[in-house]
Specification:
By secondary structure, the chain is α+β, with helices and mostly antiparallel strands. 13% of the residues lie in helices and 29% in strands. It comes from Paracoccus aurantius.
Length: 842
C-alpha cells in the first residue's frame, strides 16, 4: 500500500471476489503456554479458507529493519478455523515494525496468483501486548497545512525600505488610523526620516570603504574596480517555472525523427488584453509584462494527460504522504515516458468540496523514472479485484513530496459528509520554462577603421619595443602608430538575461532551484565578406587568449548592456569593417517571480494547445547587485583566506561547502602525526544528522583539495555521538490525563520534526559539536507543556556511565568531536533514553 487511508475497504472488495488475502495477524505473547515461545508464533487470519492451497515455510517471509527472521514451520488451520496459518519463528523481533509476506516460492517473491497483491503482506509489531501510556488510535485524514513564514531581508537599507518599515510600524501601533496620504504632513515627516536614515546607512557603509571607491556612481566602472580585488559583481539571474499545456486534441510529430511539437524556445506570456491563447505575431510580446520561453521540448501533446486521477485500490479518504516517490494512476496511459514531468495539485477543497477552497500552494512537479502501464505486451495493467485499468508510476527520489497530497476525502459535517473521490489529480503535458524573450538578429553596427594616431614614438607598440622598423636616419621621425577604432555597441533592449545553464538530467526540484554560475544569454555574430564568425559571451576576459573570440556584456546603471571586445592580449580585437549582429534574450531578476497561473498566451507551438498556465510560481529570479552592495562587500572580499594551513583555516573552507541538504552544521579540525607524515582529520556534522558516507566524503575532499597544504593528507569523519540518559519526574496538574501529557513531553523531547514544522529538543540540527548540554533549559522546556505542574530531574548523565552525572553541576560536558544524542528508541536504547515518571493527573 502506497497510501495512508482512513477507510480500509479493500478487504470487503476482495472478500466478494474470487481472490483471497490476509485479514489480520495475531502475535501470541502472554497466551503462549511456555515462556520461551512468547512472540514466536504468529496466527495469520485469511479472508477465506485457502483450500486446496497449502502454504509451505519457504512461502512465508518475515522481515524487519534488522533483517529477515527465519521461519521454522507453517501449519494451515487452527482447530475449527481453517482460514488461519500458524507460523513458527526461530526468535521474536524487536520494537520495530515488521512485515509478513506470502510469496510464490523461494526464488519468486511475487504474491501467489490466488491472493490479492494488496493483501498479500501485513505490517505488525511483536510488542503489541507491551504496556503503553499512549493511545494506539492514530490521527487520520489529511495533515493540516503549516503556514509559511514571511521572508525578511535584513540587507534592505534604502529610502523605500525605511519608508515601508515606518509605514508598517504605524499600521501596527495605530491599526484604526487610515494610511498616510501622499500629500499628508505625516507622509512628509516619514519621507524626511527615510532620507535621514538612508544617509546614516550610507555614512555607515562609506566608513568601511576605501576613499574613492565610496564615490563611484557608474556601474560599469564599479564592476571593473571590483575586479581589481578579485570581486565579481553579481549580475543576477532569471526565474524558472513549469508550464502546463492543455491539449484540445492529440498532437504528434510528423515522424519519429522530426522536431517535437513544442520546441525549446517557445514563448509564453502573461495576459494581454484582447488576445486569444495563441498570439499571432512576435510584436505582440511587446505588450506582455513577463515572457517565459520553454527550456525543454515536448515531443507530443495528449488529451488524456490533461488530467489524470489516482487509483486508491478501492479504499477511501486516502492521501500520498510526504516523502512519497510512487503512486498509481487511474486509467491506462501508455504514452507516459520516463523523463516526463508530472504535476500534482488539489482541484477541490477536502473539507468543503468547493474548488475555490483548494490549496493552491499544494502543487509539486516531479520527473518520472519508471512507468508501468502494461501487464504483458499489449495487455493493459489492471486492478486484479475491480479490473480497472491502472498505470503505476515512480519519480526521482530527489522529487519526493514536500507535503502530503490529499487524494480522496469526506467533507465536514456542516458540508454534508459527502465523499470526494477526486481531491487531487496529476497533470502531464508539462515543460520547463525560464524568464526571458529572444531578440533575433539585431544589427549592432560595424567595427570602425582607424581615424586617429599616436604621436610619433608614443604608441603602446613602440613603447613596448614590439620590433617595429625605426626611421631611416636620425633626421627622420618615427612613423605614426594608428589607434584602433573604438567599437562598444549597446544592445537596443534590456535587461539582458543571465541564466544558469540547463542540466537536462536533473530532477524537477533541482531544475527549479538551479545551481551554478549564471551565463549571459548573448550570441554575437560577425560577418566580413562571406566569412561568418560566431563570438562567445564571457563574464570577463581575464582568461581569454589573444585569438579567443570572446566578448563581455557590461551592464550599466540604467540596465543597458554594453559589449566590450578584446585587445589582442585578453581576447581578440575584431577587425575593422566586420558587421556584427546579435541574438540575445531580455528578461531578468525578480520580475520573473510570478505567481501560479499567470502565463496564459503562447507564441508558436501546435494549434492543438487550447489553454496554458504556469503550474508553479516563477522562482529563482535575483536582481543584479547594486553599487551600494559592491561598496560594502568588495573592500573585504580580497581578505578571504583561500588556503588551509591551521585548524581555523580548514573550518572556514568547510563552511563554504554546500552539500544538497545545506551548509554544514559545524566542523572540527585536528592535525596529527601518523608516524611518517601529518594528517588533517576533519570531523563534520551534517544537517539532519545525515551520515558521512563515501560520496559525501569524496565531494568534501574535492572541495578542500585546492586549499590544503602540500604534504598533508585529509581524512573526513562523522561526529562521535554520545547517548545520554535522562529521568524526569513529572507532576501532572489536576484534571489532565497523564497519558496525554506524557505523549506531549515525548514529542517535545524527541529527535524528529514535529507536525507543526518545529524541531524536537534533541533533533540533530539542535545539537552541535562539543556543545555543553545544560539541564535547566530542559526543565524549563518540560514545564511549558500544558498540564505539567512540576518537574524534578532524577537522572542526567551519559548513557550507562554513573561517573558522568551532571545533576550537581546542571550540565554535561562533551569533547570537541562529540555530539549529544537522545533518540528514545526502545529498539536502540544505546542511542539515548528518556524516562518520564508521571505523578498526579487522572
Amino acid at each position: 500500500m502506497i497510501y495512508r487511508c482512513c477507510d480500509l475497504l479493500r478487504r470487503e472488495e476482495t472478500r466478494a471476489s474470487a481472490l483471497n488475502g490476509i485479514d489480520f495477524l495475531e502475535v501470541i505473547d502472554h497466551a503462549a503456554p511456555v515462556e520461551a515461545d512468547r512472540q514466536r508464533f504468529l496466527h495469520v487470519h485469511l479472508l477465506k479458507d485457502p483450500a486446496p492451497v497449502v502454504y509451505a515455510g519457504d512461502q512465508i517471509t518475515v522481515t524487519g529493519p534488522s533483517g529477515v527472521i527465519e521461519v521454522l514451520d507453517v501449519q494451515t488451520g487452527l482447530g475449527s478455523q481453517a482460514n488461519v496459518l500458524v507460523v513458527e519463528l526461530t526468535a521474536a523481533g524487536d520494537f520495530e515494525t515488521h512485515v509478513l509476506a506470502i510469496r510464490r516460492g523461494l526464488l519468486d517473491d511475487r504474491p501467489p496468483p490466488e491472493l490479492d497483491p494488496q493483501l498479500a503482506s501485513v505490517a505488525f509489531s511483536f510488542k503489541v501486548e507491551c504496556p503503553s501510556d499512549f493511545d494506539c488510535l492514530k490521527s487520520c485524514g489529511c495533515v493540516p497545512d503549516v503556514p509559511a513564514l514571511p521572508e525578511f531581508s535584513y540587507l534592505a537599507r534604502d529610502i523605500d525600505s525605511f519608508r515601508t518599515v515606518m509605514l508598517d510600524r504605524i499600521a501596527t501601533l495605530q491599526p484604526g488610523m487610515p494610511p498616510p496620504n501622499p500629500v499628508d504632513q505625516r507622509m512628509a515627516i516619514i519621507d524626511a526620516l527615510a532620507v535621514v536614515a538612508d544617509r546614516i546607512a550610507y555614512a555607515q557603509d562609506a566608513g568601511h570603504t576605501a576613499g574613492w571607491l565610496a564615490h563611484v556612481q557608474d556601474r560599469i566602472s564599479a564592476r571593473r574596480l571590483a575586479l581589481l580585488v578579485d570581486y565579481r559583481m553579481d549580475e543576477g539571474r532569471n526565474a524558472r517555472c513549469f508550464v502546463h499545456l492543455t491539449a484540445a486534441s492529440d498532437a504528434l510529430p510528423v515522424a519519429p525523427d522530426f522536431d517535437p511539437v513544442v520546441m525549446a524556445g517557445t514563448a509564453f506570456a502573461t495576459r494581454i488584453g484582447g488576445e486569444d491563447v495563441r498570439l499571432t505575431g512576435a510584436a505582440t510580446l511587446d505588450r506582455a509584462r513577463v515572457v517565459f520561453e520553454a527550456m525543454t521540448p515536448l515531443q507530443a501533446l495528449f488529451v488524456d494527460h490533461n488530467e489524470m486521477g489516482f487509483h486508491t485500490w478501492s479504499d477511501q479518504r486516502c492521501s500520498l504522504p510526504a516523502g512519497a516517490t510512487s503512486a498509481t494512476l487511474s486509467g491506462h496511459f501508455p504514452n507516459l515516458q520516463i523523463g516526463d514531468f508530472l504535476g500534482f495539485e488539489e482541484v477541490v477543497g477536502p473539507r468543503t468540496g468547493n474548488p475555490a477552497d483548494r490549496d493552491r500552494a499544494n502543487r509539486q512537479v516531479v520527473r518520472l523514472i519508471a512507468v508501468n502501464a502494461f501487464e504483458t505486451a499489449g495487455v493493459p495493467l489492471t486492478d486484479p479485484v475491480t479490473t480497472e485499468e491502472i498505470t503505476e508510476i515512480a519519480w526521482d527520489p530527489a522529487d519526493a513530496l514536500d507535503r502530503p497530497l490529499c487524494l480522496s476525502a469526506e467533507t465536514a459535517l456542516e458540508f454534508g459528509r459527502i465523499y470526494l473521490p477526486r481531491v487531487s489529480v496529476a497533470r502531464g503535458n508539462i515543460v520547463l520554462a525560464d524568464h526571458g524573450r529572444s531578440i533575433l538578429d539585431e544589427d549592432i553596427g560595424d567595427v570602425p577603421g582607424s581615424t586617429k594616431s599616436w604621436a610619433p614614438g608614443r604608441g603602446p607598440e613602440r613603447a613596448a619595443g614590439a620590433g617595429k622598423v625605426g626611421p631611416c636616419c636620425e633626421c627622420e621621425e618615427d612613423p605614426p602608430e594608428r589607434m584602433p577604432g573604438r567599437f562598444a555597441p549597446v544592445l537596443a533592449k534590456g535587461p539582458l538575461t543571465f541564466a544558469v545553464p540547463l542540466d537536462a538530467a536533473l530532477g524537477a526540484r533541482a531544475l527549479l532551484a538551479a545551481q551554478g554560475l549564471p551565463a549571459p544569454q548573448l550570441w554575437p555574430t560577425g560577418v566580413i565578406g562571406a566569412v561568418v564568425e560566431p563570438w562567445t559571451a564571457q563574464r570577463d576576459l581575464l582568461g581569454s587568449g589573444p585569438a579567443a573570440r570572446d566578448v563581455v556584456a557590461e551592464i550599466d546603471s540604467a540596465g543597458r548592456a554594453h559589449l566590450r571586445f578584446g585587445n589582442d592580449v585578453n581576447g581578440q580585437r575584431p577587425a575593422a569593417g566586420v558587421s556584427f549582429s546579435a541574438r540575445y534574450r531580455i528578461g531578468q531578476g525578480p520580475t520573473g517571480n510570478i505567481g501560479e497561473d499567470r502565463l496564459v498566451h503562447v507564441l508558436g507551438g501546435p494549434a492543438e494547445i487550447a489553454a496554458l498556465r504556469n503550474f508553479t510560481a516563477g522562482v529563482g529570479g535575483i536582481a543584479a547587485e547594486t553599487i551600494r552592495s559592491m561598496r560594502r562587500r568588495a573592500p573585504f572580499a580580497f581578505r578571504r583566506q583561500d588556503r588551509a594551513v591551521n585548524r581555523p583555516d580548514h573550518d572556514e573552507i568547510a563552511r563554504r561547502f554546500l552539500p544538497p541538504e545545506g551548509p554544514l552544521q559545524g566542523s572540527v579540525t585536528d592535525v596529527m602525526h601518523t608516524g611518517s607524515w601529518h594528517t588533517t582529520l576533519l570531523t563534520v556534522d551534517r544537517r539532519g544528522g545525515l551520515a558521512v558516507d563515501p560520496d559525501f566524503e569524496t565531494d568534501l575532499r574535492a572541495h578542500i583539495e585546492p586549499y590544503r597544504m602540500a604534504g598533508r593528507d585529509i581524512e573526513v569523519e562523522g561526529p562521535i555521538y554520545v547517548p545520554i540518559e535522562i529521568d524526569l519526574e513529572i507532576c501532572v496538574c489536576r484534571g489532565h490525563l497523564s497519558g496525554q501529557v506524557k505523549a506531549a513531553l515525548a514529542d517535545v523531547f524527541s529527535a524528529r520534526v514535529l507536525p507543526d514544522g518545529s524541531l524536537g529538543a534533541f533533533h540533530p540540527d539542535r545539537m552541535e559539536l562539543g556543545r555543553t548540554l545544560y539541564l535547566s533549559p530542559l526543565v524549563a522546556l518540560a514545564q511549558r507543556v500544558q498540564g505539567v505542574c512540576g518537574v524534578t530531574a532524577i537522572l542526567f548523565r551519559r548513557f550507562n556511565d554513573p561517573g558522568s552525572s551532571g545533576l550537581g553541576a546542571g550540565r554535561l560536558l562533551f569533547g570537541r568531536r562529540e555530539v549529544a544524542q537522545l533518540q528514545n528508541d526502545p529498539s536502540h536504547p544505546g542511542r539515548g533514553v528518556l524516562r518520564l515518571r508521571m505523578k498526579g493527573g487522572r
